[in-house]
Each structure stands twice: as C-alpha cells, then as structure tokens.
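User:
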Amino acid sequence: MDLPNLETYLNPDNIQTITNWGKGWAWLAGGTWLFSEPQPDLQVLVDIQRLGWSEIEVKEDYLIIGATCPLIKLLEYPWLAEWTAVEGLKSAVAALSASLKVINVATVGGNICLALSVGTLAPVMIALDATYEIWNIKGESRQVAAKDFQFGFKSTILQAEEILRRVLIPLSNLTWKVNYQRFGIAATDPALAIVVSARNHQQVRCVIGASVVAPQILELEDVETQDFAFLQKVNFIEDAKASAIYRRELTAVLIKRSLSALLCQNS
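Assistant: Predicted structure:
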C-alpha cells in the first residue's frame, strides 16, 4: 500500500546520525505491517536495514537475535540439536500463517514491537526468560525483561527515540522443553488464544497470549493437579470474535494440552 502522506525517508547507517525525533516519525524494518494499511499520521520513515545489525549469534551465555533478523532465519538457522526450546520459536513463525514472501521480509523486532494481542513471538520470549536490549538515538541503552515490555494492545515501554536492538536468551534456557498451542476460528485467522509452556525438570511456566491484551506469565506449581481456578482472575478480551468466558475456557483447554505434551516429552 502506498503512503501518500509520507514526507521524508531516511536510511542511516548509524542511528546516532538522527539528531531529533518528531511527531509522525517511525522506524522501518521489514515493513510488512506498516505498508499493509493506511498510516495517516506517518510523516517520516527511518529505515534501519543499513545499520548492519547481526541476525543470530552466540556470545558468552546468551543466544542473541538482532531486531532486524528476518523471521525466515529462525527456521533456517543450523540450531544445535540440544537446543530443544528453538521449536517454540519455529512454532511462533509457523503460527503466523504468513506467505514465504512475508516471512522473508518481516523481522523479529517488528513482530515484537508491533505488540498486537495476537503477537506470536512475545509469548515464547517471555517463556524463555528473554531480555530485550533497547537503544535510543543518543547512543544510550537499557535492558528490560521480555515479560515487562508489552503492557497492552500496541502498547510497549518504548519511548520516543527508542528502538529494540536485540533479544538475549540465556543459553541454559534453550535446553528447556517448549510446547506452543494456538486456536483460531480458522487456521489462517489470528488466534483467539495462545499458550506457550516451557519446562526444565520440575520448573514449569505458561504464558498466555491472544486471549488477553498483552502476554501474561503464569507460574504453575503442580502441573498434574492444576485446576486453573486462577484463570478466573485474568481479564480476558471480549469482542465480536469471542466472549471473555469463551476465551477463558479455551485458554484452559490449551494449557491442559500444552502441559500434557510437555509431560509426554519428559516421559
């Protein structure tokens, strides 16, 4: 889709060359969402593809995924066999039901920062206890836990002039068993509920998404006798697609399926 109101296109090789940030400015990575619908308030695009950020690398005790890493790389990278948690990342890409053309261009950072309730990668990052590194145009950086990044629909802690630089996942967490569950009205529709479960020995965590405005982590104490009464306290989305009650019951079903699958993997 054309953006006829766009006034300026910037393509820097260093974000610190951007000396000011104004109203109507936006970062451009893959652009698969940005160019998919009208953007009436957009005036300036700052393309980050020339910044030369690495896509996937291992440093010290972390797997590091650059914000500009195309989603296709998560499927094609030669992962170590013992990194079983990578299946969660692959499932998140597959859950998009996007064409090959889209996943070749769409980026990890774009998927996370768009912060849709139905976002597919964020629940996996939270389940794996990932950390996000954020930069601003002054060259300053800060880190935040993935679970604290998104707080609502299209709402994150990112401030003006800030950008997600990379995702850091502890290498030790890549050996976790991960199961990804989703349910939508149709296979190609956005999910009504997403559940990502991760298990390491007796430690189990579940992250729910799509049924709530932002992903939420649930610490489960006893996965075999869980009655899911705690879901009564969760504020589920209610809209034309599904009621809050339906989403709650659907989430409970997906949690049971996910935990059952994890138990089978460990048996």
